[in-house]
Amino acid sequence: MLQTKFPSSIKKLGLFALRRSHIRYYTIGKTEHDITSLDDLVKLESLDNVDPTLVQKLINEKTTELNLKNEIRRLKTIQEQRENSVTSNRPVRLGDFKRAGIMFMLMCSSVYLCWQLLWWNLAYNSKEVEMLDTVTSLENELHERIEINKIAENELTQESPSRPVQKKSWVSRWWK
Q: How far apart are CA 128 and CA 109, in angstroms?
């Protein structure tokens, strides 16, 4: 069984007022051990004779110790951030914006090139449509004039059938 020895002043305060240095217990072999940390519990062969409140108290102490370490680490990072913010209140230099400016210029130029290509494509398509319209109107005008010339030739041939049709080339007229 677990036997603990406490000084009389600590017995009056109860188990919650115990300090690690005052806790002692005897194992079955009647050898005395001091349990002051969780490492001492690891060294034991079994935890059968260990008071559960003692284990709970040691775990709570270790937890509070780790929580304090984490809190100190968090406070140090907050302090470092404040110090960095104080040092970041220096005057703004042009070099701080160099990379951002270059990226901005690249983005602007790529957007400009895309819009320019789109504009050129639209201008090309509209010019192509205009040219197709003029070509079709000129073709229609040509066909109309050809029809008018055919009609005029037919009328001329019907009016003067006695006149022979000249089959000489236009070049031969120059040499006369």
A: 28
